[in-house]
Amino acid sequence: MSYIVNKVQDDLKKIIADASAKAAEKGALAAVPSGAFNVEIPADRANGDFSTNAAMAWARELRNAPRKIADAIIAEADLNGTYFERVEVAGPGFINFYLSDRYYADILKDIRAKGKDYGRSDYGKGKRINVEFVSANPTGPMHMGNARGGALGDCLAAVLDCAGYEVSREFYINDAGNQIDKFALSLDVRYQQIYKGEDAVELPEDSYHGEDIKVRAQEFADVYGDKYINADEAERRKALVDFALPKNIQAMKDNLTKYRIEYDTWFHESVLHNDGELADTIELMKEKGLTYEKDGALWYKNIEVQTERLKKQGLSQENIDKLELKDDVLIRANGNPTYFAADIAYHRNKLSVRNFDTAIDVWGADHHGHVARMQGALDAIGVGGDRLNVILMQLVRLTRDGEVVRMSKRTGKAITLVDLLEDIPIDAVRFLFNMREPGSQMEFDLDLAVEQSSQNPVYYCQYAHARICSIIKKLKAEGIDPRDCTEEELEALKAPEERELIRHLAGLTNEIVNSAKLYDPAKITRYVVDLATLFHKFYNACRVQCDDEALMQARLYLCVCVKDTIKNILEMLRITVPESM
Predict the structure, then answer these.
(1) Stated pTM of the model
(2) Half-sphere exposure of 244 toward its Cβ, with a 13 Å CA cutoff?
(3) For residues 118, 390, 257 and 511, what is the CA-based torsion angle, rounded to 10 degrees?
(4) Which has the least CB within 10 A, 32, 101, 433, 565?
């Protein structure tokens, strides 16, 4: 929270505490009250800039009418040295505080003083957070879920960084296990079909049937010809995967870079298999009595672990039984580890080996059942399941002309991330995917995303910034440059539209902190849309260029504060900030 806003709220609580203590000392209150009370911002500013229910909250404790308690408190309220100019009692006993002109002037001074750092705070105290997102299988193209997850994860990481955390963005590459075996088989069949014909070698139903597999097999054939046709199957499949997998991974990196996502770490699952971390994790689970063998496989005692955790949370055995918990295989009968086993080792690596304070994973909503299993397993091995936070993201529906769109006009296939980035401005994709909370289903309107009007939220915000740049440029052409303003000049910004705009600007740091707390970057996109709305409202009501030079400069000062704040937010979200449109 910004220093000024934080001081205001701290001062309010101190005023109430000190005044109630004085009132008790003088006998106006039966005792010094100790109960909690709320402070809120009234919807109608006629009821104050801040309001507290302290008198109502203490009525039973003090055995007195709330109105009498409120009157006793404000009689002793000392506003000296604070940003409050007056305090009043309203209704049944609400205590309403009104901010002074100095508050509004100092907010603007603070914005200009902080510049690019306005909105940043040390709330996170440098705690290390790993944000893992997208992590698409490298066996095929990235889909709409990856598109939403990319924008969400990257913008969340930016918000956390702005809130004072040390953030690392990570992509987990599933380059081991069943999906790679399936990838190898699919490539193998497509490669053989090039030389033997499609009827000679059948592609199994549960393999990958995408056109991208054919493309990679043909590229392999273009380089190696039929060299591997008569080779040993294991040798041929290894050669195909060694050729195709790096190309797929590089394509993902290129596409995500185009999407303006830069990862700090690309973590390969194969490392866990090859360096012994997965084996060590399995051994640790055995030592802790969390496993058993059945039908040649090694199993994890999920039922036992989850039951114990849920009982500690107060759930009855009857309700636990309704969950129909199941144990999980860690090592299959053929000796291959499951994805779940690798996932436990991977999160142990994040939290115990690399020592992140918190791991945040962005997963699709279909992984809902996996969350409790992972947190329970981490608890059971002593890592701490509460250090893993999972954001479950709902699906995206693409629409055009009000109709759901599933296929690309260009390819006739399901729309991929690449298709989306070729058809829609990246600014719009990143912004619109963060207009809704992760847990809410969303429709992505393809028509709206390309529309250059106030209906398009990102265009609307960019236009507000460009409009201010245009105002400054026009005045400069007339020999008028923005200058610093005195406190007295800024205090003259008293129009309702001016005050409303400044109050909104004052809330940015707190909004970023709340966004970080809730893992919800949509709060920031909504904030900047509201800021653009309030600016346009101010612009229409308060003429910037006017005969009163001091007032003109104060309004120009306010315009620059809005411009810089919009720029800070859009750049944080990696969205371009045009100066003309």
Answers:
(1) 0.92
(2) 32
(3) -20
(4) 32
